[in-house]
Amino acid sequence: MSQTEYQNNNKFSFEIEKRMDGHLGRAGIIHTPHGDIQTPAFMCVGTHGEVRFMSMENLHEIGAQAMLANGYHLRLQSPEIAAGGGLAAWSGWNSPTLTDSGGFQVMSLGSGIGKVVSMEREKEVLNADPKERLAKVTETGIEFTDPFTGKEEFIGPKESMEIQCRIGADIHMAFDELTSLADDYDYNVEALRRTEDWAQVSLNVHNQHRYDLGYEQALYGVLQGGRWEDLRRSTARKLGSMDFDGYGLGGAFLKKDLGSILKWCNEELPENKPRHLLGLSRPDDIFVGIENGADTFDCVAPSREARHGRIESRNGHFHLNKFKDSDLLLEEGCDCPTCKAGYTRSKLREMYKSDDREVRAKFFELASMHNLRFTLRLCEEARAALLEDRFEEFREDFSRSYYKKSWQEHLLELQARDTKK
Ligand SMILES: [Zn+2]
Predict the structure, then answer these.
(1) Active site includes 355?
(2) N or C: which terminal CB in the chain sees fewer CB atoms within 10 Å?
(3) How many beta carbons lie within 10 A of that of residue 56, not counting itself?
(4) Burial class (CB in 10 A: 0-12, 13-18, 19+), 163
(5) Do 292 and 153 fall within a single domain?
(6) Taking every annotated instance into account, which residue ranges of this chain make up the domain tRNA-guanine(15) transglycosylase-like (predicted)?
(7) What is the pLDDT at residue 406?
(8) Residue numbers of the domain that contains 315
(9) For the domain that residue 83 is a member of, what is the CATH number?
(10) Are 155 and 102 in contact (CB under 8 A)?
(11) Mean pLDDT for all residues in the chain
């Protein structure tokens, strides 16, 4: 594809193909100027415009439909990316892309928050000395100290939108304030007001630059509100009435609360716009997400964990360390290039432990391809099941094979695990 030939009449749109009976789930197609995304779908994370240790050919080969890059990490290169025709052309990916606003990365400097944090992590956050935090929220954005240069920096909705519109992904995220589990209700009310104000600024600035690179760039509003139903519902109604092209579902919350939070948001949001669940990719998160109306997902976990030897398979995840003498493939019947080429667990373990940089890089590529393909395939299979009205059967089979228990038993265990702490 040349840099000036776009698909879908250069426009962004979304169509729903099938709805799940009695639930918010659906299968659909997101049309973007750089191609279609068949949903539910997982987007591979390429923070700097490439997935680490993988080529664009690798990514296409494993069935990736879209790549998510980071607005904050690419901010200094954004003029060069704009001159190169936008992210898809500049990176050589030439397919749908999404950027996040950078708010999460900057806020992470402040409190070390994760997406779904455990109560253990929460204690560390509460005990952290505020003076050691590198980021501070103001009414107009976030002041922070760049961890690499030590320089004082500022990013707000205006800056984030200008950066994202230069990078030129097909889908952008509004700039938001992510709260942590340690923040109470009152703080969440205050933070949500800022996020809603910033949503309006994001929309205004984005609309000025929407066609700057010659194709339509879409903007998703981001929903926060912690674990409180009234906040989640009110912000979904408020942002839902604004002219966003889709919605990002964000926040730090306990894993067991994911389903309710998505339900509160998605019951209020307009049905005809796509929704992206930010930063989650565990099979159970994907199942809960799909059932409650999330269309797309992203997470660094599949490739990051692959590089650390944690491998996904239909029979559950495992660590390569345990397979010194094993002729088994990573997963029997897997259609990823690594399994198709016949790499055994013991061979990959040997590469993982190698001191040779090139061997290790090859291991990173092979393991990343497998874990990413696992996650992509899970979404493909869930989509096929949804289209054929057999999502619950598919999830039940998967659960019995992956978690070694029924889906209901797994959910009950999750509830018990989170409330014990
Ligand atoms: Zn495989």
Answers:
(1) no
(2) C
(3) 17
(4) buried
(5) yes
(6) 25-403
(7) 98
(8) 307-389
(9) 3.20.20.105
(10) yes
(11) 92
- Report if residue 117 sits inside a domain: yes
Structure token digits, residue 80: 């060069």
| Cα 412 to ligand 1 centre (Å) | 30
The residue annotated as part of the active site, out of 100, 170, 245, 295, is 100
What is the pLDDT at residue 165? Answer: 97
Taking the centre of ligand 1 as the mean of its atom positions, its distance from the CA of residue 5, in whole angstroms, is 34
Q: CA-CA distance, 146 to 148, in Å (whole number)?
A: 5
- 37 assigned to some structural domain: yes
Q: How far is the CA of 336 from the centre of ligand 1 (A)?
A: 4
Assess whether 418 carries a catalytic annotation.
no
State whether 258 and 378 are in the same domain: no
Q: Which residues surround ligand 1, an ion (CB under 5 A)?
A: 330, 334, 336, 338-339, 370
Task: Catalogue the E-assigned strands of 1-149.
Answer: 13-19, 26-32, 35-39, 41-45, 67-70, 97-100, 135-137, 142-145
CB 190 within 8 A of CB 106: no
Q: Of 170, 298, 325, 356, which is the active-site residue?
A: 298
> What whole-number distance in Å separates Cα of residue 373 and Cα of residue 66?
13
Q: Are residues 95 and 142 in the same domain?
A: yes
Residue 416: inside a domain, yes or no?
A: no
State how far the Cα of 38 lies from the Cα of 258, in Å rounded to an integer.
Answer: 23
